[in-house]
Amino acid sequence: MPIIVALLIRSIYLRKNNEYVVKSLIKQRICSKINIYKRVGGNKLQIHDYITQGGKNAIKEYLSSLPEGERGEGYRIRHKIIEKGVIALEALNTRQLKGKLWEIKFSQNRIMYVLADSENIYFLHACKKQKGKAEKFELEKAIQRAKEAGFTV
Fold it and tell me: Rounded to whole angstroms, how far apart are CA atoms 14 and 29?
């Protein structure tokens, strides 16, 4: 069960412009954004990939370098997030890394991201799952990119 769903304290249903809006209150120490809004059925999320100083899309470049099956799984995850929004994140294998920084795990890969609001998600770094020093290096790289994008982690 995704951590966001497991840690919901309560939900308040509001009626606004003939749409039901769910206002979820989440524990402060788990998620820096206390209020997460989502329409029943899900908002579409806009994915913002990290672009290097050389103009390369770091996330798509990583995904295109993967074997066919893993590459397809990565692009299916992107499509689900675009179409279903925050609800798709609840169904995926995610975990919080540090502050606002989260990761999506698939196969032996992971995509590190920050959920800016109910409409925007920033994919900051993608890499193979590893242990030890390499993992710390990858985490530091994602934190640095989050800071470059204006997020405090």
Answer: 25
